[in-house]
Write a structure and sequence with these properties.
The protein is an alpha/beta fold. It has 2 domains: about 5-85, Orthogonal Bundle (Arc Repressor Mutant, subunit A), CATH 1.10.10; about 90-305, D-Maltodextrin-Binding Protein, domain 2 (3-Layer(aba) Sandwich), CATH 3.40.190. The chain has 12 helices and 12 strands. The protein has helices at about 5-15, 20-25, 30-45, 60-85, 95-100, 105-115, 130-135, 185, 200-210, 225-235, 245-255, 285-295; strands at about 50, 55, 90-95, 120-125, 140-145, 155-170, 180, 190-195, 220-225, 240-245, 260, 270-275. Strands 3, 4, 5, 6, 7, 8, 9, 10, 11 and 12 form a 10-stranded mixed β-sheet that branches. Strands 1-2 form a two-stranded antiparallel sheet.
């Protein structure tokens, strides 16, 4: 059996519902239901009691769930061991979209000048929670995340990078004065936000809760999981956005966008370089070179090398 079915069962149990598990796994609810049905047919007995509001394990389900956790841990150890044994002719890097858009092109350009014949390069974007999980599973060598929450990095090597400032941005056409802005002037606008799980969305909602407000207090809010589209709509004056200053610094400098901050809001977030513990940072020269370029680009020395 593919471990995706066991992972699905574990997520359903952790979340207590099919819908929440589907959101976590980034699949549809019917897909989760089909996977659970497949497992139940495979083992010939129901694994979940669906009679209540929250799904709970049957006695058979408890046994399968317990063994699934052990099997998934074995798979993680296997992937980690294979990665550490593999001759380092590849780099698998994952980051949040902001870092990927603003910084990765420059880093890649310098890296490829030295290693333009490297056999296997992988660069992916995702949300902070999923990135940390992927690093633990040994799916990537290193990552960069922006985050406002505190993660347990005890089993990973990390380097604190210069942080990132978050701002509201608007077109001058909306006539919202730049700088420290009256919150009601922003709440009168449509706001563009990322999907749940993205750091900018998490930070915005946390800020709103701190002042007793919520997203619905804006004139309206629109979820768009494409930073380029958010910036385009903001430039057109269709609404305001809460995003990294780095993403729109050129437009701000050119007067095409105004920058806004709200008193009482937390406008700063952390940025962290994460390196999988199985990576041989000394012997693997391409990976070491990539890390050196990345940290030098951000103006720091990497203490791990």
């Amino acid at each position: 059996m593919e471990t995706v079915y066991l992972k699905t069962l574990v997520e359903v149990v952790k979340e207590g519902s099919i819908s929440k598990a589907a959101d976590t796994l980034c699949v549809t609810q019917p897909a989760v239901s089909r996977r659970i049905k497949f497992i139940e047919e495979q083992y010939g007995c129901p694994l979940l009691d669906r009679s209540g509001q929250t799904l709970v394990l049957t006695n058979a389900g408890k046994l399968v769930f317990e063994k699934a956790l052990k099997l998934l841990e074995i798979e993680r150890d296997l992937l980690s061991g294979l990665k550490s044994m593999r001759e380092c002719k590849s780099i698998a890097f994952i980051c949040t979209p902001t870092f990927g858009i603003v910084h990765l092109p420059t880093i890649m350009r310098e890296f490829m000048m030295e290693y333009n014949d490297l056999a296997d390069l992988s660069f992916m974007f995702d949300t902070p929670n999923k990135i940390v999980e992927a690093l633990r599973d040994g799916l990537y060598d290193l990552a960069v995340i922006e985050h406002c929450e505190c993660f347990d990095f005890s089993d990973l090597s990390v380097v604190a990078l210069p942080g990132d400032d978050m701002i509201f941005a608007s077109s001058p056409a909306l006539a919202v004065p730049a700088g420290d802005t009256d919150r009601d002037a922003l709440f009168a606008q449509t706001v563009f936000v990322r999907k749940e799980g993205c750091c900018s969305r998490t930070l915005l909602e946390g800020n709103l809760r701190a002042i007793g407000r919520e997203l619905s207090d804006f004139r309206s809010y629109v979820v768009i999981d494409d930073l380029h589209m958010i910036i385009k709509l903001t430039l057109e004056g269709q609404g305001v956005s809460f995003l990294s200053r780095e993403l729109v610094q050129e437009q701000i400098d050119a007067g095409l966008l105004y920058e806004h901050q709200i008193s009482g809001f937390r406008h700063h977030r952390k940025r962290t370089l994460i390196i999988h513990s199985g990576c041989d940072k000394q012997a693997c020269s391409p990976l070491k070179f990539f890390i050196n370029i990345l940290t030098a680009h951000l103006g720091i020395d990497c203490p791990l090398l």
